[in-house]
Amino acid sequence: MPIAEFEDHAIHYRDHGSGDPVVGIMGFAIDQRFWAAQVPAVAETNRFVTFDNRGIGHSTGSPPDSIDQMAADTVRLMDHLEIERATIFGVSMGGTIAQRLALDHPERVKALILAVTFARPIEFMRREQSVAKAIFEKADFDTFLDGSLIHLFSPAFFEVGGETIDRLVRSFYAETGPDPAGTDILGAQIDAMEKFDVLAELGRIQVPTLVIGGRLDMMVPCFASEEIAAAIPGARLEILDGGHGIMVEQMEPFNALVQGFLREVNGG
After folding, report:
1. Which residue, among 5, 25, 1, 31, has the nearest Cα to 14 in the 3D structure?
2. Which of 33, 34, 152, 248 is the most exposed place for a label (fewest CB within 10 A)?
3. What's the CA gap between 264 and 268, in Å, rounded?
4. Is 168 within 8 Å of 248 (Cβ atoms)?
5. Backbone angles phi, psi at 250, to 5 degrees
6. Fold observed for domain 3-267
């Protein structure tokens, strides 16, 4: 199990494929296993580095105090792996980390892929996150996971993809996998997201950017993707018919968008 050791934390990562590097940053509460649907697609043409954020999966460290800190963690991992410049691929909370990284370290970013993410505080999400915190305090993790799944996929996908959803849940609880994150980590991630606000800064990003939103997303509203694409010069916006889990729900069209974008970036 490859681990990058730092003074105050350790990052568990995996290296897939070869070629121009892509660094994948996962979202709230979950570890890098949830890149499984994208690893073959990205690794077909690129080196794809995935990792667990601090305190998640097999990574260690104190709860994050900000999105900025998690962006700095990502840069430290890139330094450890001697990756000078990469396409940064962020999903949900991982997309906020990717934006912060691109703003703070533009020399390290060749291109951006931002999926089902946001750039400013959104009242709908604030209310959702308040409910999540209440669940942490009054219920167990299983209840939190069940509640999250309801909002992760579109209603139609539960009808046709129920078996896929059940497999995801089984993999989450697999004995070979890490323990679920503690409520201190999850609460800190929510606090970090609530403070994140960079929409007014995004005009400074000057790299090719692909923004992917979910039309039926009930965790991060689709208009948040539209705002990001409008703010980043030259950004390409693609909206898929699915919920927050479009990486799984719309795996083939999602991966096709990513692969096409990477071909353009690699060729450039």
Report:
1. 1
2. 33
3. 6
4. yes
5. -120, 50
6. Rossmann fold (3.40.50)
Question: Rounded CA gap, 103 and 141, in Å?
Answer: 34
Give residue limits of the domains in the chain: 3-267
Please give the backbone phi and psi of residue 27, each rounded to the nearest 5 degrees, phi first: -95, -160
Span 230-244, pLDDT tens digits: 999 999 999 999 999
Work out the number of other CB atoms within 10 angstroms of the CB of residue 5: 9
pLDDT at 17 over 80: yes
Please say whether the beta carbons of 259 and 44 come within 8 A.
yes
User: What is the Rg, in whole angstroms, of the alpha carbon atoms belonging to the chain?
Assistant: 17
Cα separation of 52 and 30, whole Å? 8
234 vs 145, residue with greater confidence: 234
Q: Span 82-94, mean pLDDT?
A: 98
What is d(CA 22, CA 261) in angstroms, rounded to the nearest whole number?
A: 12
State the DSSP H helix or E strand holding residue 143, giving kind and residue range, or none if neither: helix 141-152
Q: Are the CB atoms for 47 and 19 separated by under 8 Å?
A: yes
Return the structure tokens found at 194: 């609530």
Which tokens is 54 given?
A: 């601090």
The residue-averaged pLDDT of 2-18 equals 95
Q: Per-residue b/e over 86-100, b at no fewer than 16 CB within 10 Å?
A: bbbbbbbbbbbbbbb
Q: Could you tell me how many helices (H) and strands (E) the chain has, helices first?
A: 11, 8
Alpha helix stretches (DSSP H) within 81-221: 93-104, 123-138, 141-152, 155-160, 162-172, 183-195
Give the neighbor-by-neighbor strand order of the sheet with 47-51. Answer: 3-5, 10-16, 47-51, 21-25, 86-91, 109-115, 209-214, 236-240
Amino acid at 186: L
Token readout for 268 is: 């450039």
